[in-house]
Amino acid sequence: MSDRSRALVEKFLIRPGKTFRLKDLDPRDTSTVGDEETTKIETDALARDIDALQDRLYAEGRRALLVILQGTDTAGKDGTIRGVFNATGPIGVSVTAFRRPSEDELAHDYLRRAHLACPRRGTIGIFNRSHYEDVLVAKVRSLAPEKDIERRYDQINAFEKMLTENGTTILKFMLHISKDEQKERLQERLDNPNKHWKFNPGDLEDRKSWGDFQKAYEAMLNNCSTEWAPWYVVPADRKWVRNAIVARVVKATLEEMDPQYPKPSWKPGDFKVD
Amino acid sequence: MSDRSRALVEKFLIRPGKTFRLKDLDPRDTSTVGDEETTKIETDALARDIDALQDRLYAEGRRALLVILQGTDTAGKDGTIRGVFNATGPIGVSVTAFRRPSEDELAHDYLRRAHLACPRRGTIGIFNRSHYEDVLVAKVRSLAPEKDIERRYDQINAFEKMLTENGTTILKFMLHISKDEQKERLQERLDNPNKHWKFNPGDLEDRKSWGDFQKAYEAMLNNCSTEWAPWYVVPADRKWVRNAIVARVVKATLEEMDPQYPKPSWKPGDFKVD
């Protein structure tokens, strides 16, 4: 890992066992990257590197990468996927958006639909929202008994540990925006007809519970940043900073995984093409 | 549709009701495109146009596009996906590779796994191989009684008609390479260590049945090119020609679908972001 990537990991990784508070991280922080123009060029280069590493991951076919994106409405989950993974071909990348659970999904435990969506070996899976909604909106809106929700942190940790022990590396990014930035972005969705489809009146209801959501995020970060599946909190008021940080961590992670072209079980000389 | 796209559609579309023979189409034909360098630049531009159209399809959220790719081993199914869809972000594109069916899949009818993999509204689904394997390899290797296989053409046509009537536009491309070209590509997989992982000794067995496979492809084309889900046969010995043709047809199809940003059910003035 490059020194620069290591510095980013140090800065934005939530250390297991330490108490983290969201107010200690400035969503407008730009101190870890260079100027906007240079940073955007660097991010494009990182995205191409990720594509090349993904090709090797696919060829190897033995391990997977799961990237989980969480963040309040308008935090930029879709935008991050575009900024970091648009250069990665669709062959080895799957994106799953976790929407309001269906009646069928609710008839199972909450982890099942996440499990079904996990990436197959050789691929990158991206979760746009995830099983963490079950300790976020579920907690704020009391969608399950409090006792049940509190037990989910350990259940999620055990689930993710199992995944990593079976070949799936997990990266979790919380995209952290300020309340002011959300106001601007929601207003933009109301003002720009091409963004009307992104506006959901329910988002305004959630905005009224901003403080409760921030608390739920903190509980999630403090309970579920583990050695095997750490959380990163990314300052996300500036889209170019957000994309730069996520791209750098994803690339560093794939480099550490260091996927290899598999050795064949046959000898090339054994075959003749007629 | 531009005149050029219309000419391509005319040339490579298999007309329902007419008998088509593969030997009438030259896999090395370059007459429908310009020189290699210009064509590649044009294809990159088409790929970006497809990305922009896909964004509108996603916003609209009412219809889907299903792109089916078939072709003998080494015909370039993966390469086509890379060449045509790499500029399209992974958010609205899913790729499904149809491998040897699992025991569970075999315990159902052959169309079920294709149905499960169909794209959700607002997205593009790409099938790398498909339910057509059940009238190709299944026919050549007699994996089912002949009577059962012969009935599948009508079953597939009815299945695809239902999909189109419910909002999914279907494009089917057979990537047509010559036997000589396949020899070169298989040899390249044996000679280049970075391509060893792509080589499957079973491909040599299938190559021995080249003639039977060509007949099975012809039967598929002549029985399943319908008004609602036509087959295109693409000369694929030249990768840049193949990508150019597929990209042009995909773009023209999305343009004809003409997806629109949806009109909201609410009035922007009804809301205030506090």
Tell me what you see in this structure:
2 copies of one chain form a homodimer. With 274 residues, chain A is α/β, with parallel strands linked by helices. In chain A, 48% of the residues lie in helices and 11% in strands. The radius of gyration of chain A is 20 Å and the shape is globular. The mean pLDDT of chain A is 95. Chain A binds chain B through residues 59-61, 78, 81-82, 85-91, 93-95, 126, 128, 183, 186-187, 190-191, 193-194, 196-199, 201, 204, 207, 261-264, 266, 268, 271, 273-274, and chain B through 59-61, 78, 81-82, 85-91, 93-95, 126, 128, 183, 186-187, 190-191, 193-194, 196-199, 201, 204, 207, 261-264, 266, 268, 271, 273-274.
Keyphrases for this structure?
five-stranded parallel β-sheet; 274 residues; alpha/beta; 11% strand; homodimer
How much helicity do the residues of chain A have? Answer: 40-55%
Poorly predicted sequence stretches spanning 5 or more consecutive residues of chain A: none
State the distance separating the first and last CA atoms of chain A. Answer: 46 Å
Rounded mean pLDDT of chain A is: 95
What is the number of beta strands of chain A? 5
The arrangement of helices and strands of chain A along the chain is HHEHEHHEHHEHHHEH
**Main pleated sheet of chain A:** 5 strands, parallel
